[in-house]
Structure formats: structure tokens, C-alpha cells
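Q: I'm building a small set of examples for a reading group on sequence design. Run inverse folding on the following structure and report the sequence directly after it, with nothing in between.
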């Protein structure tokens, strides 16, 4: 197994390679540290210095490209979020946040029926099958859950609907 001493001998080369492929020297140093950490955790790393050297370069390269992909995905996600925010407008976003917060305050059984019917789009019969209850039960549960959610969003008392659902 490659020893820490072998890695220390090759450290200047690892740093030089990382600097060559990274835009910033801080990123390069972090990349080398991550690669060394990975090498030390891997049991089947090369034991011979001549094999360790290219193997570590490959580890550094793969970690670098993994990081670039993560950054690209984050940028794309943030750009999409910004675009959605701009298209929807602040009042729509605030309303959605308010609804999500109210949804989280509902009891699990109400969240379940709302999720199946209103979010996932299941028909009442399908939701009844999933929950192993009658269609009429789904209809009354969805009605109470919607009323309770609306009450929470509007800031009125939702306890009545929540209590009915527990009976």
C-alpha cells in the first residue's frame, strides 16, 4: 500500500498539476487535500511509486471535474429558480411559501390525502385504493384537509377541521 511518505514525495507534483487545471490556487490546494484524503481512505491504491503517481493525477482530475459538474448544476438550478421567481412574481412566490408552511402544519393524515389527490393528481378511487379506505372516506378527508389548509393560509382557526379528521 502507498504510504504517507510516498504521497509526501509526490506532493509538489500534485500541487503543480492541480494549479494547472484549477482557476484559483486556493481551489488547487483544496483539490490536492481532497485527493490525498481519498487516497488514504482507499484500500486498493497502488503501492509502487510509479503507479501511485498517475493514479493520484487521475484522482485529482476526477475530483476536479466532479466539482465543475456540481458547480454547473448549482448555477443552472439557481438560474432556473431566478427565472421562475421573475416569471411568477414575488406575490406568487410568497403565496406558495405560505401554502407550503401551512401544509407542514397539517396532521400527517391530512397531508397524505392532499398529497395523493391535489399534488400527485390521483383520482379519488385511486387514492382510496392506496389508503385502503372507501371512496366516500377520501372525499370527506380531502374536503376537511382542504378546509384546514385554507384556514391555516388565511390565518383563521383550523382546529375544527383537524379535530373532525381525528374522529
Amino acid at each position: 500500500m502507498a504510504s504517507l511518505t510516498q504521497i509526501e514525495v509526490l506532493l509538489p507534483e500534485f500541487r503543480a498539476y492541480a494549479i494547472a487545471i484549477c482557476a484559483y490556487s486556493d481551489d488547487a490546494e483544496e483539490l490536492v487535500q481532497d485527493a490525498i484524503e481519498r487516497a488514504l481512505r482507499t484500500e486498493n491504491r497502488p503501492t509502487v511509486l510509479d503507479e501511485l503517481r498517475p493514479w493520484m493525477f487521475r484522482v485529482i482530475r476526477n475530483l476536479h471535474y466532479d466539482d465543475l459538474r456540481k458547480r454547473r448544476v448549482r448555477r443552472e438550478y439557481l438560474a432556473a429558480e431566478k427565472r421562475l421567481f421573475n416569471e411568477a412574481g414575488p406575490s406568487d412566490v410568497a403565496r406558495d411559501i405560505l401554502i407550503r408552511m401551512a401544509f407542514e402544519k397539517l396532521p400527517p393524515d391530512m397531508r397524505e390525502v392532499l398529497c395523493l389527490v391535489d399534488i400527485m393528481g390521483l383520482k379519488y378511487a385511486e387514492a382510496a385504493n392506496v389508503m385502503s379506505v372507501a371512496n366516500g372516506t377520501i372525499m370527506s378527508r380531502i374536503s376537511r384537509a382542504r378546509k384546514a389548509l385554507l384556514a391555516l393560509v388565511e390565518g383563521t382557526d383550523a382546529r375544527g377541521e383537524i379535530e373532525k379528521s381525528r374522529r
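The first helix runs from residue 4 to 21.
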